[in-house]
Amino acid sequence: MIPNNSFRNQPKSFWAYVRTISQKVGYTARNQSQIKIPTISQMKEALHQIGLDTSHIVDKNNHPTTLGNALSDYFKYRADILNNYVEPRLMDVEKAKKVFNGLRKKVSPKCPLPMNKQKEEKKAHAYFTGIINILIEANSKRFTCDYAPGALTTITRNSTPLRTLARRVDGAFPSIVNPIAIWEIKEYYYTTTFGSRVADGIYETLLDGMEIEELREHEGINVKHYLMIDAYYTWWKMGRSYLCRIIDMLHMGYVDEVLFGYEAVERLPEIVKEWTKLAAQ
Fold it and tell me: What predicted TM-score, i.e. pTM, was given to this entire model?
């Protein structure tokens, strides 16, 4: 999923409103599975309750301002894209296993197909990571790919380090040194609670995005940055508020594209072909 251009170039203050209002109003209604859409009156009340000025979103006649309308449009968009596009694409472990086995049989990959970190009967391939690796290998032609870097991403200039990112990422194309693209994979098929480890995965991606933004703004170097997530129960049943945060992060420009579950099968072939064109230049 790529960002919607209508919300792509909003100032950071716009996202301050989004976060503040979302926190106060809530992301989902209790005991409901749909994403909440705050009304203008709810936005006004949320700001009022925490002692903030409301004149930027409603005028003296209580009509929404340009900012108020923009916020309303974004909240409607965020709810619609999550309810109608993201939810149907999130897979459970059985569907992910079926897709993985189908691709493995069709492609006969040579790329790494790592195992998950479960024990006993849950021990199996990391299906979503395997799907991603197979699709990258099948569409990257002659180019190499670092499927499990185990090292920090480094950008160089004149054979000397220019920037080294703070975290190790899950994959880099074609290499962890001067990559065209890097990505994070978050698959949690066996998670039964939405704990801090899952939440931290989102903030880690945000940190990577901020470092890449700084690199782009100060050095003119752009590294494509992707987040790929799956597990219906974890993300939709327990983590819908974090899905909202992911959509926010995407439109803030901290990640180029987010692939939700089966969307990896739909989009990765085209994405990887774009990488190979850049690598061939």
Answer: 0.94
